Model the fold of this input.
Amino acid sequence: MCNTRKLENTEINLSVNDLVLTPATCALLINEIIKYLVYQKSQIPYPYAWLKNVVSRKRKSGENDKNSNPSVSRNYSAASSAYDIIEEMMKNISHQFKENGDNVKEVMVLFGATPHSPKEMIRFLIPKLEDKHIDVNHVISNEKNKNKVLRSLFLSEEWTNGMELSYPCTNMYLLINKTIANPTDDTAFFLPIRNYEHNEKVPHRTIRFLYNFYVGLCCHDLQIYNNSLNKVDDVKVEENANDGISNYWYQGKLILKGFKDCFINKQSASDLF
Done:
């Protein structure tokens, strides 16, 4: 059921100092929160892990079931489409951080009919990221501490209060803000939005990643991965490298359309895929 209680705008200061916050780790953290958001905001009828499981199971068993109930088939089609779109969104978030690193300043998730008149927006403010670390050197500790960071967010009072506001099925849009010289169609997924400004009157929840950046050189001491650092060592920063640089908004070309579960003889359609 839709909860229409008025949502107060909130900024959540989320400490991520337990992580080595590389671009890849930052993207992973945002993607994990998005998985949680799509369910908590009632855009998918069950947790993301279950959505992935039932769609993958159906695909492995074969999608062309001529004897399937039409209602089940329609529900599977909606679930399958939603799964593919969420996966594509997360893949392209990871790509943007991998390719642009510190140039990505903000990621924004919008819920509503259009990106210009959303019902709510979730903002992720990105700090300076570690670019001299090799992710595989920190994968074990980052995986452990990532869960700790997510728990601290999901159990916070500011977050739980915001999750009380959900909607009937609507659209979910994905936007990023990055610092570049000229806005171009640099990927097949994110397209530049001219003169975009988000409406401060729209209820919004801002997640600010707090990170104490330091120039860590621990990866230099791990000989097995030293070759991966050659590109970093060879980079030369020109004195006027930031001349003409501005922030621009980009919107993902795919839109997640929320869907509801349906029940056949009191049984979820997802059990019948």
In short: The domain at 14-227+244-271 is CATH 3.30.900.20 (Cell Cycle, Spindle Assembly Checkpoint Protein; Chain A). The chain is about 35% helix and 20% strand.
